[in-house]
Amino acid sequence: MNWKKYINKSSIVLLSVIALSSMALIFFNYYVIKITASTRGYINGESNYSKGQKDASKYLLQYLESESESDWKLYQKNMLIPFGPRDFRLALLNDSSRAEMHRALLQGRNHPDDLDNYIWLYKNFGHFPFMQEAVAIWTRGDHYNEKLDSIAQYCHAMIAKDEKNELDLSLVKSEIIRINQELSKIEYSFSDVLSNTSRKVEGWLRIANVIFVILIVGGSGTYFIVLIKRLENSEKELLENNRKLEEVNIALDRFAYSVSHDLRAPISSLKGLVDLLKREDEQEKLPVYLNMMIDSLNRQDDYIKNILIHSRNRRMVNDFKQVELSVVVDDILKDLIHYEGMDKVEIKVDLPDNVVTDENRLKIVMSNLISNAVKYRDDKKVPKIEIYSKRQKGGTLITVKDNGIGIEAEHQSKVYNMFFVTNNTNKGTGLGMYIVKDAIQQMNATISLESTFGLGTRFDVFIPQYDEG
Predict the structure, then answer these.
(1) pLDDT tens digit string along 31-78?
(2) 268 FRET partner, CA 20 to 30 A, in 47, 67, 198, 376?
């Protein structure tokens, strides 16, 4: 084997494998880093949240002492900061617009560059345990902030009405301090959950990097070995394909010889009959000769049609769809209404089933089986044909049964061979059943034969069950 002609292709394939593995590594690193950056962004946001809440509590306590509207406004301004993340969480739950989410995050004093990362992490990992735990902590914190704001609003209303003396300031201050303490615990817990997650993800990243490097190096080496084996196998396949091509060429030569022979036979017969007609003086014999000429032309016409059907069947792409068996057979019987001997045959049809298959190929199969049953009828008895179907496990069985002349046992294994015609009849072209077998294979179906010479023949076609499309 000349390895030089393969070395460039091998190098390109090898580099492609390494490049794809490297791209996968970059892709994984990018998303892991994005997760880490997003979780750290949440932690930074918690710092703003905590500072805003603490400052709001400080100004609220000052306001209770000073009753100054400037302290009250400072409380409100700082309380907007923890309420921003609350509004963001609610916007996510309600699938609000991205602009609404951005507004809420900016209210919480988050950096504009981090806003989309917050949304991305929540939407893609909101169902993960670490995110669910963080959101649950976050929600508890929002409840405490709302409770703190309710106390503040109540105190502000009382002071505005000049009813401060009705407030138990020591109790109110104690409650504010208690809420602050609870919020501090919640804020620490929130940061701990996301910090632990960030550390775990970074640990996974290190492990993944090691694994990917091993895969890249090991995979490249393995692929190189496999490539060598493939090249060896391709050479064997090439030799095998050459052998098959030679067989195909031999078969084509045989096919061309048989076709030319069988196409010329009716022409030779016609030429002989024409020559007889030239020399025949008895007018009563003319119809006999003309009928013989028509028979010869019909055989040639059938032969040419079968060749065309075979060629079309080989080129057709399967088009599997829902097919009504009764409609297919009804169309075939209408086409065969003028077929020789059709008027002598009793045909019983019971086809309640639909199948998913290639309708054109099914028509080829059924048309050949039905026309053969008519062609090879036994005129010594009333010719009968039964066509019926029934459901079976995994598909549908279609049966064409006749009481015709039957097929001798020694010929039954050859009926699907190209150009096979039994010695006891001169009716066939030798292509019909070959075309049937070929169409059956294209449909992924099966066909079986039972026949007793002198009693009749039965063909069973099994159509596997498929979903439409």
Answers:
(1) 777 777 777 777 777 888 888 889 988 998 898 888 899 999 999 999
(2) 376
Are 353 and 391 contacting, i.e. CB atoms less than 8 angstroms apart? Answer: yes
Q: In angstroms, rounded to a whole number, what is the distance separating the alpha carbons of residues 371 and 333? A: 9
Q: What pLDDT is recorded for position 261?
A: 45
290-303 confidence digits (pLDDT tens): 666 665 565 555 54
Q: Tell me the C-alpha distance between 461 and 448, whole Å.
A: 7
Domain count, the chain: 2
| Token pair recorded at residue 177 | 């301090």
446 touches 317 (CB < 8 A): no
Q: What average pLDDT does range 234-252 have in this prediction?
A: 73
DSSP character string of 134-194:
HHHHHHHHHHHHHHHHHHHHHHHHHHHTT-GGGS-HHHHHHHHHHHHHHHHHHHHHHHHHH
What is the extent of the structural domain holding 363?
319-464
Query: CA–CA separation, 366 vs 323, rounded Å?
Result: 13
Distance CA 342, CA 406 (A): 18
32 and 208 Cβ atoms separated by less than 8 Å: yes
- Answer for the pair 17, 223: CB distance below 8 angstroms, yes or no: yes
Give the three-class secondary structure for 363: helix
Query: Is residue 308 domain-resident?
Result: no
- Other C-beta atoms closer than 10 Å to the C-beta of 441 total 13
Phi (first) and psi of residue 68, to 5 degrees: -85, 135
Minimal CA–CA distance to 86: which of 70, 113, 107, 68?
107
